[in-house]
Design brief:
By secondary structure, the protein is an alpha/beta fold. Helix content is 41%, strand content 15%. The chain has a single domain, classed as Alpha-Beta Barrel (TIM Barrel). Strand 10, helix 13 and strand 11 form a beta-alpha-beta unit. The protein is globular, with a radius of gyration of 20 Å.
């Protein structure tokens, strides 16, 4: 079966710091400016999404897609502690209202890796006040979420837990130590792998615990103050054991994903984010195997990883409804992007045919954006962007995915 449920969501995802530009009050912006920064370049104007959001929503809609994931930037809403910028809340509310007006389902993320600089300088997520401060922010945002169904509290908390334990508390009195840790995480044992579980230290129990407490607090606030459905988005690595290392696999899955997916048993939905698969062997997590086709960030080309991630998530959560909030490939070969996405969607269709509750597919990413330490040269997008004029140019993959969405089927679309 390659047809999808009638109410299946088809769309694409983005993130505020990676798209908006000039997020000058955030910790990520501050790190980008430091001498010797691990970032290949600064985010700068980004894709100017802060001003061009209407253009991007119109483009997404014109391509045949009907769901758009975007984020609200805490550092804009609360640029200094205790000051809520009403104009910024109004800005994000206008994006939500426009999505609803033109028939695009808004999928809203409240925290996508970047935090206010004041928050991090005060101890960040390691501070005893971290959960309360995050709760204050969620409370401030809640009134603008009227009409929104899908709200993700924290993006990839299992990856973010490691990011913040490497840089928190970040007082900027020893920035080079922070940068050294970031460089170490971004540099694999061999090859050119991007930041993922293979290249990062494991999340510590304390870091995992604070992510869970922050999510649970946000969920409570949102359920009390709004009618939204609450989840968070988990990076599911598609881990597979080499023969004889099944016990190691179970430990790695629990440490990297299980503790977070179990929390989603109490959520309204869970976001599944999948790009590749990794082996667990005698030396722990392994990079891409020898001879594997690699993406721009050094991940093995594994479109089948998405189905693996869905089945693992379904089992771990006990059947929480799933929304694919990120899936894609970093490549300059757009034909290969179509191949990858078609393979991933075949796996989604198979999972749905077996009874798994998958509500939609949001491609990462809509427009080529700022890919953290890699800068702008790594391209995941369905749409290319000129970084001087900010002109958007849809790639063939964008039009292909739009046709799949309109047909609500793979087999009905040429090239699938």
């Amino acid at each position: 079966m390659t047809a999808f449920p009638d109410d299946f969501l088809w769309g694409a995802s983005s993130a505020p710091h990676q798209n908006e530009g000039n997020n000058t009050n955030s910790d990520m912006w501050a790190l980008e400016q430091l001498p010797g920064s691990s970032f290949a370049e600064r985010s700068g104007d980004g894709l100017d999404f802060y001003h061009r959001w209407r253009e991007d929503i119109d483009l997404l809609k014109s391509l045949g897609l009907s769901a758009f994931r975007f984020g609200i930037e805490w550092a804009r809403v609360e640029p200094v502690r205790g000051h809520v910028a009403r104009a910024e809340l109004g800005h994000y509310r206008r994006i939500i209202e426009y999505c609803l007006e033109v028939g695009v389902e808004p999928v809203v993320t409240l925290h996508h890796f970047s935090s206010p600089l004041w928050f991090v300088q005060a101890g960040g997520w390691a501070s005893d006040e971290a959960v309360d401060r995050f709760g204050d922010y969620v409370t401030a945002v809640a009134p603008i979420l009227d009409g929104v169904t899908w709200v993700a509290t924290i993006n990839e908390p299992n990856m973010f837990a490691v990011m913040h334990q490497m840089s928190t508390p970040l007082q900027y009195d020893d920035p080079q130590a922070v940068l050294a840790r970031m460089r170490e995480a971004a540099s694999p044992v061999s090859g050119e792998a991007g930041i993922n579980a293979f290249t990062m230290p494991e999340p510590k129990p304390a870091a995992t615990a604070v992510m869970i407490r922050a999510h649970e607090r946000a969920r409570e606030i949102l359920h009390d103050l709004t009618s939204v459905e609450v989840g968070w988005t988990i990076a599911v690595q598609g881990l597979v054991a080499r023969s004889g290392h099944e016990e190691d696999l179970a430990r790695y899955r629990q440490t990297w994903e299980g503790a977070y997916l179990e929390v989603s048993r109490e959520d309204d939905w869970v976001g599944v984010q999948s790009y590749t698969s990794q082996l667990v062997g005698p030396d722990g997590l392994e990079g891409a195997p020898d001879g594997a086709e690699l993406t721009q960030v050094g991940w093995a080309y594994r479109p089948d990883a998405l189905e693996m991630a869905l089945r693992q998530t379904w089992q771990a959560t006990g059947g929480t409804p799933m929304l694919i909030t990120e899936n894609g490939i970093a490549t300059t070969d757009d034909a290969r992007r179509i191949d990858y996405t078609a393979g991933a969607l075949e796996g989604v269709a198979s999972a749905i045919a077996d009874g798994l509750d998958v509500r939609g597919y949001l491609h990462w990413t809509f427009v080529d954006n700022f890919e953290w330490v890699h800068g702008y040269d790594v391209t995941f997008g369905l749409v290319a962007v000129d970084l001087v004029t900010f002109d958007r140019t849809p790639k063939p993959s964008a039009r292909w995915l739009g046709r799949v969405a309109q047909a609500n089927s793979l087999t009905a679309v040429a090239g699938a």
